[in-house]
Design brief:
Elements: H1 2-29, E1 34-44, E2 47-52, E3 57-61, E4 67-68, E5 77-82, E6 88-94, E7 107-117, E8 120-125, E9 130-134, E10 140-142, E11 151-156, E12 162-167
Parallel strand pairs: 4-6, 10-12
Antiparallel strand pairs: 1-2, 1-5, 2-3, 5-6, 7-8, 7-11, 8-9, 11-12
Length: about 170
């Protein structure tokens, strides 16, 4: 009987120890603030939907407590500091055309038009990098309509807005 009680006490002590270690591991593994970079796909009220460089769509909550670096349009590349619950506490523009460095003026993007998603045109530039351009009613479109597969040349602002876009090899 004493032996059975001793084994029972040992089992209880073991289980308490395992539970404490498991709890401590959960606390250490709990995610904290994180940073993501990606293209702004859409704005839905207080939520921004961003596609990360890995292709994952992330829904981020934005409110009056979020520190915003200006205003944002779909197609722009953003860097977001957010909580593990998805609330953004900081959002900044990222300049994809110049690799994150502030460009002094418009840049030229030449390449193949891969896809058109509303006001976002995705272009594979001559270096093989995919660049998302924001195209809207203020963009000067030269040479008629654009479709996927076209070779294009665009003048792009430091915020990835296409100021003008033309066919790179127009038919003569």
């Amino acid at each position: 009987m004493k032996k059975l009680i001793g084994q029972f006490v040992l089992a209880v002590v073991f289980m308490v120890g395992v539970t404490a270690v498991s709890y401590a591991a959960d606390k250490m593994a709990a995610p904290g603030p994180q940073a993501i970079k990606g293209d702004l796909l859409k704005i839905e009220g207080e939520f921004y939907v961003v596609q990360t460089v890995t292709g994952k769509e992330v829904r981020v909550h934005v409110d009056k407590t979020t520190n915003l670096d200006g205003t944002f349009k779909t197609g722009e590349e953003l860097e977001i500091q957010m909580t593990d619950k998805g609330h953004a506490f900081s959002i900044k523009h990222v300049n994809a055309v110049s690799g994150g460095m502030a460009a002094p003026g418009p840049q030229t993007v030449k390449g193949d038009l891969l896809k058109i998603e509303g006001e976002s045109y995705v272009v594979r530039d001559l270096k093989g990098k995919e660049v998302r351009l924001h195209v809207d009613q203020t963009t000067k479109l030269e040479g008629g309509a654009f479709k996927t597969g076209d070779k294009i040349e665009a003048q792009v602002s430091d915020k990835n807005h296409a100021v003008s876009m033309a066919h790179a090899n127009p038919a003569k």
